[in-house]
Amino acid sequence: MKSPARSILNSSTHEMGFARDIASRVCFLEEGRIIEQAPPAELFTDPRDDRTRRFLRRIVDAGRL
């Protein structure tokens, strides 16, 4: 019996609400390099990297998340 096929979708976006709602894993990039990656619940509630924290704070303060 064959196992069901899995689908993978890679998407690049600046829409953090979309990434939070749709992704199973989010990568945060700076200058083309991954600086942090985690499941959305973890990345958006407890980011490890200072740059990720600063970015998320700015978009939350601007009402964009």
Tell me what you see in this structure.
β1 and β2 form a beta hairpin. The protein has one domain. The model has no long low-confidence stretch (mean pLDDT 88). It is an alpha+beta fold and 65 residues long. It has helices spanning 16-22, 40-45, 50-61, and strands at residues 26-30, 33-38. It has a two-stranded antiparallel ribbon. The longest helix has 12 residues, at 50-61.
Report a brief summary of the structure.
By secondary structure, the protein is α+β, with helices and mostly antiparallel strands.
Features of this protein?
two-stranded antiparallel sheet, elongated, alpha+beta, 65 residues
- Helix fraction, binned, reads 25-40%
Secondary-structure element order, as H and E?
HEEHH
Strand content: 15-25%
| Helical/strand content category | alpha+beta
Instruction: Tell me which oligomeric state these chains represent.
Output: single chain
The overall pLDDT average reads 88
Figure out the total of helices: 3
Shape: elongated
**Number of E strands:** 2
